[in-house]
Amino acid sequence: MGVTFTKHFSQLFAKKNIRILMVGLDAAGKTTILYKLRLGEIVSTIPTIGFNVENVEYKSISFTVWDVGGQDKIRPLWKYYYQNTQGLIFVVDSSDRERIVEARDELHKLMNEDELRNAVLLIFANKQDLPNAMSAAEITDKLGLHSVRKRRWYIQSTCATSGEGLYEGLEWLSSNAANVA
Known about the structure:
There is one protein chain. By secondary structure, the chain is of the alpha/beta class. It is 29% helix and 24% strand. Helix 4 (136-142) links the parallel strand 5 (120-126) and strand 6. The chain starts with a helix and ends in a 5-residue tail after the last helix. One of its GO terms (molecular function) is metal ion binding. GTP-binding protein involved in protein trafficking; modulates vesicle budding and uncoating within the Golgi apparatus. It is found in: Golgi apparatus.
């Protein structure tokens, strides 16, 4: 009886671990987002060749966030990071109108991957502070998200350098990815 009580009691206060894969086109701001969440500050970044992985604590959840490089030559390697992913963060540079179709195509490839079928999808519409940035509503249209029916998704306007919108996105992830087996 005491062991059972202790086990259940500790589960109430134990941090839940959630595996997150963060991808998007190169220069979207993935690494800046990761380290703003992890350290609370801006770090100077270079294009990610390979990956960065960090634990981000939020409320009672420990997110293990895998930030994988987005250059076109690296994207075929994304599949090696799919296993056990509960949440997918797709980062879009809201000011990059020239590559929004490319971003849409990459996102839809991800959503068609069998290993990611149960992962919830959070889109960070990043760089909202830049002139001519597309709104979250415009990005929703251009990414074709209204046609997504078999997946929970959410789009959040963000500015990685100020941190604006990042914790709202984590709040959504904590409520939705926690239910993914």
